[in-house]
Amino acid sequence: MDLLSKIPILNEPNPRLVLRLVREAESVSRADLARATGLHPSTITRLVAALLEAGLLQESGEGQNDLGRKPIVLSVVEDAIHVVGLAVEAGFVSGVLVNLGARILERIDLPFPPAAEQDSVLETIFAVVAGLLSRAQARGLDVAGIGVAMHGTVDSASGISIFAPAIGWRNVAVAELLEERFGLPVRMENNAKAMALGEAWFGNGQGVRHLLAVKVGQAIGSGVILNGELFVGANFSAGEIGHTTVISDGMRCKCGNFGCLETVASIDAVLKKLRVILKRGDGTSSLLAQGDLDPDELTADDVYQAVLAGDGLACQLWDEAAAYLGVALANTMNILNPAKVLIGGDILPIVDYLLPRIREVVVARVFDPLKAALQIEPVGLGENAVAVGAATLVFRELLG
Ligand SMILES: [Zn+2]
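Above: inputs. Below: predicted complex with zinc ion.
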């Protein structure tokens, strides 16, 4: 479904370009825009007038200029465009209603029903969208489109979930189903890729032309921004860092391969290892072995609490995971040479614990010239990074 016709002025490339440049700049005048675009000043004046008229730009005061008259500075009217962004994860859907400044106006989270099947997962997605659209309507806001970020492999050109292992989907035309139901344009991407895009636009990746964003949760994935653009690869599978081999004769992964990063550094991998240790009767001094806790009932949150409390066993397990993450990151950095690496996903509660350990391994292993400017940080958008990234798919096309 066509997205640009929702905001007619953005049907033309030049208004989109001007809007994008104003959004990216801290403060920008008409003269700056003429210089940046190479367009004639009178053309810029006309384009800016049309964007002011459409309510997408505003004049926001005077800028700096040493030579006499101070130029009028322009800024984007962030509340001129609103978008719904969805993160469809392994057990839940998290949806946000955001404006063009990525300000979250509404958020709805719904878990999937137990033993969720295709239809019930879709119903959960529909329910989150319907809730957000009705809240938008109550606020008197138009929604320009819906962005969806799914785990697994996503055909982002057609909006199809090719394979979503945690919910057993194969070739589900999610975008088409949502467009039929809600009559709005839908854009779709893999969750880690969407996270990378959201960070590049609104988070800790702003202004970074070569960015790697790694999402660590039940699974591990990454999104790669190259030359300022999201890189999806020939088969929508670029960035599958979780399925790179870190142990040549390691455990079998759910992808069918052996020794993947995901088998040793995902939350599921850490929980699995922990349960084996506890069931064996080891680790008795750990907080996680106290009382009559059933090892099978332990959750990721229990382990995070233990790490934050300095529990030896919990820290040791995550130290091992961090070392493998460091190895995989060093390999990936050697190939891509990103200016910055961001870490996000469900492990955010312990990211400050993990980062120094990951860095240590990366520094030890990465190709020497990359060491000097090594930047590895948490994502800037926190737990909303994927849902905001999904919304960014729509903004990217509107301003693309
Ligand atoms: Zn694998």
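The chain has a mean pLDDT of 94.
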